[in-house]
Write the structure tokens for this entry.
Amino acid sequence: MNALTPHLSALQIILPLLAAPLCTIFRLPRVTWGIAMVVGVLCSFNAIAILEQVQSSGTIIYALGGWAAPWGIEYRIDDANAFVLVIISVINVFGILYARTSIPAELSEDRISWLYTAWLLCFTGLCGITISGDVFNVFVFLEISSLSTYVLVSFGTDKRALTAALRYLIVGTVAATFYVIGIGLLYALTGTLNMADLAQRLPEVTAHRTVLVAFGFITVGLSIKMALFPFHTWLPNAYAFAPNAVTAFLAGTATKAAIYVFMRLVLTIFPAGFFANSTIAYLIILAVGILGAFVASTIAFFRQDLKQMFAWSSIGQIGYMAIGLGLATSAGVAASFLHLFNHALMKTAVFMAIGCLFVATGSTTLNSLKNAGKRMPWTSAAILIGGLSLIGIPFTTGFVSKWYLVTAALELDMWWLAALVLAGSLVTAAYVWKFVETAYFRTDSNTTYTRSEAPLSLLIPTWILVIANIYFGINAQFTGTQALRAANAIFGFSS
């Protein structure tokens, strides 16, 4: 075991990458699920071991092939990306656990092995994005995860899934082009692609307009990948028409990796103070964050399909993370990291619960869910608690996130921003109430339930995340500490 310790970061990529083709060889659904599950559990424990190693020994720097940076590619893991890696890995395990029952209910047997192949490749890409210390390597892993995600979305039973996947592919290609142009400009200016090296060299060339242009290209590209308003157009349909297990997995992982990279590049790669002292950039990030939180939540209120409603909700919640980033302070970025963790918990649980409703009713539209609170109490309660967390009700993780964000705004005497964050909770409450009213206060004799409650194999992973949502809402010591460490790592990256 001691011999493997120095190579934990490499194992995080190698395990799922090697397991993916195995799913195309062993075509039996149970076997392919077992492969994905074993790899997911191993990677989850591996990610936790990496986090512990970082906290005990400091930043991990792993040179691939023994070639030291900047000539070689390195994985560089500190408190920030180690925290994100744990989030992605743990959510992946719950997604696969949930998929065991959910996927066969939606897909034919001959397609399941291909889904797990794409799933493992997507997970490989997300882990690579998170731990890479090289901006071009981030692009490579970004494309691995994106191409796999297009395939995952296309597996949806609704024909509109193909259209959603195509739209995602086109928009994602534009995003990747913007990003690679940005890093190309940085390479032309500095002669390096290593993040730590870039952070050292860019201050010497700050006067060049190329730096600002590169900043713009990278910002737009990553804004699309993280579905930041108004670059969010791919997300609602991709989440709505993908298989339920895929939606839950993507909601808790895909945008989280992109948000991390956005924070890393914006706040650490560019010269110290470049972003914080740029009034225009500061106002734009705050503006799009606020607009995203309100506009997306308002649109969510008018959706009649639960998956679309909570897909738009995700765009709104990403807006809150952008607000924390826009503050450009340790407290603000810590609030963003904390909300990244909390949102992964609550939104994964909500989409899993929506999948439970689909199994029972064959639909996720509000009209088909009348009396669901009585017929499916556990499933309905899971959505309700997730919704309360999105609002920010005390004793949920959402409350902790917004408390940190409001506190960060007040530290800068931005009373108006704190007020807007609280007002955003009222808009969230409006669309959550639509579900509550339909499920608990409306009855319809024409609504057909194929079963009284979802199978335990679906409810157990859902409720573990729901309970975690409550636990970390009551006891936020661990998550709060990790978020602060992550924020400090972001600002101290180049040191």
About this structure: The chain is about 75% helix and 0% strand. The longest strand covers residues 60-63.
